[in-house]
């Protein structure tokens, strides 16, 4: 297939692009490099430095068979402090992209959605029928695009899949996580092991879990990428599917810390801090719909997630 990937110079976008190339697809990456890295784009992929707001001509001329949309701002804290950035980039940009896609008659889109659309649900594991109630502009902007996709599918017969994933880790060879600032648990713990920071932080040790720390769902980025390829294969005209991607069980913060210690051989001192406001006890995804509709199940566990992230970090 001839495919276009927006945000393909970012963490998840670059990994999925590398998987698409290996699978034999012809891939063009569109990225404005505001947070991505030019050297993260596989050499076999074409690259266009551009905002998604301005991509109509590229899409029309490209005659693409499908589109994978990763381009977005994704810092929760920033979205609270500067919501206008998230509405303009994630929503206005996605609207421009969908209009360009419609003009170019691209039949299929796979959208990088998020568990942040659910907010702080009472359900565990979280299913696709769990009510959406985002707590910040990041989650709200992603939900707005999900709703936009539903309307475009009904009106124009587009096939869309929104993949809502939770915490993602690991790396695929030279394609890995390089955020600035870094807000994710595993890379921040690995920074301690590498001697860049003195200690990690555990926010809350009095949760109703096996060890008192919050329970979160972690997926290897390679498993996540496989789901995107499967979503392309299982597209259906006029249909918008929303599918959660998760382990179905999750790991506590303490389990993640212990895995990082075991993999790196470093004690990784950790400071126990009070709970952060709004942090729920458990955020774990049901993967039943992903199994049924995509034939997808995660194959890689926490130790390998940390191992691949550590190898990438040291390289």
Ordered list of secondary-structure elements with their pairings:
Layout: E1 2-6, H1 11-22, E2 26-31, E3 46-49, H2 56-62, E4 66-69, H3 76-81, H4 83-104, E5 108-114, H5 137-156, E6 159-165, E7 167-169, H6 185-193, E8 200-203, E9 215-216, E10 218-220, H7 221-233, E11 240-245, E12 251-252, H8 253-264, E13 270-273, E14 282-283, H9 288-294, H10 302-314
Parallel strand pairs: 1-2, 1-4, 2-3, 4-5, 5-6, 6-11, 7-10, 8-13, 9-14
Antiparallel strand pairs: 9-12
Helix pairs in contact: 1-7, 2-4, 4-5, 6-8, 8-10
Give the overall average pLDDT: 95
CATH superfamily of the largest domain: NAD(P)-binding Rossmann-like Domain
Low-confidence stretches: none
Biggest β-sheet strands, sense, barrel: 7 strands, parallel
Number of strands: 14
Shape: globular
**Main β-sheet, spatial strand arrangement:** 3-2-1-4-5-6-11
Contiguous helical run count? 10
Helix proportion range: 25-40%
Strand content range = 15-25%
Order of helices and strands: EHEEHEHHEHEEHEEEHEEHEEHH
CATH architect. name of the largest domain: 3-Layer(aba) Sandwich
CATH topology of the largest domain: Rossmann fold
Alpha-beta classification:
alpha/beta
CATH hierarchy, class of the largest domain:
Alpha Beta
Radius of gyration, CA atoms, in whole angstroms: 19 Å
Query: Distance between the terminal alpha carbons, to the nearest Å?
Result: 32 Å
Work out the count of structural domains: 2
Structural summary, described in words:
With about 325 residues, the chain is α/β, with parallel strands linked by helices. It has 2 domains: about 1-165 and about 220-245, Rossmann fold (3-Layer(aba) Sandwich); about 165-215 and about 245-285 and about 300-310, Alpha-Beta Complex (UDP-galactose 4-epimerase, domain 1). It has helices at about 10-20, 55-60, 75-80, 85-105, 135-155, 185-195, 220-235, 255-265, 290-295, 300-315; strands at about 1-5, 25-30, 45-50, 65-70, 110-115, 160-165, 165-170, 200-205, 215, 220, 240-245, 250, 270-275, 280-285. The strands form 4 sheets. It has a 7-stranded parallel β-sheet, sandwiched between helices. The longest helix is centred in the first third of the chain and has 22 residues, at about 85-105. One of its GO terms (molecular function) is UDP-glucose 4-epimerase activity.
